[in-house]
Design a protein that fits this description.
This protein is an alpha+beta fold and 309 residues long. The protein has helices spanning 2-10, 16-73, 273-289, and strands at 86-87, 112-113, 120-127, 139-144, 147-159, 173-180, 193-197, 207-209, 213-216, 219-224, 228-231, 233-237, 241-246, 266-268, 306-308. The protein has a six-stranded antiparallel sheet, with no helix packed on it. It has a four-stranded mixed sheet with strand order 9-10-11-14. It has a three-stranded antiparallel sheet with strand order 8-13-12, with no helix packed on it.
């Protein structure tokens, strides 16, 4: 503005047009100066308002910090007894550790648990085909995969009523809870176990290995060493053997695999055909009566193993 005033004074000896231009420039600079002062004052006022707001927020945050620090000073958690501490897991399966966020007053705020290592339960899963054989009270032989030499005993105390589908599997399974009778210092929660449930016992029965039994439509038969295909009526079976109710006698010699000239073997035991057909019909009728299993997804360990009571 001073520079414009100086030019205006120096232009009094110039032509009227130059003098007028100098006056206009001076007026323009004066208006800009006044506008700049006004804007400056407005920005100062806005900054002062912002500072007051920030001071209020700072005071509020400091008061909140004082409350939190007072609460933290009283949060000294001590276990009620000595033993193993197990961090609690959230719904997504992650452990609650240092840095985990909890909503006080909302939901479960458990941080850790103290498992009772004096007694264990073992979780196992039985497929929908065999679950009807499992009952409460049945004896169980357990093994710890990490220590194959360890053998324990137990009893079934709970069988799930609703099936579920484990990850990466297609078949439906039912959860079975087993109470372990013994304890061992090497046992830890979430160890993997093998569980053999004794569903039924038989005295004085005739049985053969499963590899020796073959089927053709509704017929079940074995290949005998006398070059015959003998029809057999089967009973209950496990993973290795099957009971022969009719069709064989003790001492009969069988093929474990299909012989090369199997088509030349003659059929024997055709008197058992009506019994086989009747049994097949009963099984089909029974399967029709069984409704589809209701399933639901539940958060379970991906591998069965012992867990404390």
């Amino acid at each position: 503005m001073e520079e414009a005033e100086l030019k205006n004074k120096q232009s009094k000896y110039e032509s009227p047009a130059v003098i007028r231009k100098a006056e206009i420039d001076l007026d323009k600079v004066k208006r800009e100066y006044i506008q700049t002062l006004s804007n400056y004052n407005l920005k100062v006022q806005q900054a002062q308002v912002n500072i007051r707001q920030k001071n209020v927020e700072l005071s509020r945050a400091l008061r909140e910090k004082e409350k939190i620090m007072a609460a933290l000073s009283s949060l000294v958690i001590r276990a009620p007894a000595s033993g193993m501490v197990v961090y609690y897991k959230d719904r997504d399966g992650s452990k609650r550790t240092t840095g985990s966020s909890l909503m006080i007053g909302r939901g479960d705020v458990t941080v850790a648990t103290l498992p009772d290592l004096s007694s264990f339960n073992s979780i196992t899963y039985v497929n929908e085909i065999d679950i009807s054989k499992v009952k409460k009270g049945q004896s169980v032989t357990l093994g710890i995969d990490a220590f194959p030499e360890k053998k324990l005993s137990g009893n079934v105390f709970d069988v799930a009523n609703i099936g579920e589908q484990l990850p990466n599997t297609d078949s439906k399974v039912f959860e079975v809870m087993i109470n372990v009778n013994e304890t061992d210092p090497v046992m830890r929660p979430a160890m993997t176990t093998s569980n053999a449930i004794l569903t039924r016992t038989y005295d004085d029965v005739l049985y053969v290995t499963l590899e020796a039994v073959h089927s053709n439509d509704s017929l079940t038969f074995v290949y005998r060493k006398n070059n015959s295909r003998q029809l057999v009526l089967l009973g209950d079976a496990n993973d290795n053997s099957v009971i022969i109710e009719k069709g064989l006698s003790e001492g009969d010699k069988l093929y474990l695999s299909v012989p090369e000239d199997a088509e030349d073997f003659k059929w024997t035991g055709m008197d058992l055909y009506p019994l086989l057909k009747e049994k097949k019909l009963k099984e089909e009728q029974q399967n029709k009566k069984v409704p589809d299993t209701l399933t639901r997804q539940r958060h379970r360990p991906p591998f069965p193993g012992p867990r404390p009571n």
